[in-house]
Specification:
By secondary structure, the chain is an all-alpha fold. The chain is built from one helix and no strands. The protein is flat, with a radius of gyration of 42 Å.
Length: about 100
Amino acid sequence: MLRPKIPTNPRPTGHIAPPTVVQPTAVIPSRPTQPPAPMAPAPSRPTVQLTPGTALALVGGGTAVVLVVGAVLVSMLLAVAITGASVAVCALVIRSLVHADAKRR
């Protein structure tokens, strides 16, 4: 039916030169240089200053995070409990309907 057309690679045009061989050269050492002057080492860690204001902000932020996460978890638990109770009520209603229908026959 439909056949894809495969492109053909055209032959190279123009002058083609053979690969050139690179000859290694000798390394000539230059005059010796002076070693750099030793530098003072940079401190590995900056020191953290904990003031009463930042400590209070950290405590307040941590308390807020704990309260928000706790509220989310409690609401999820409440949603699961309500869903389970509603499924149990539906099961009881269906059971009573099936039982009442079986008594009439």
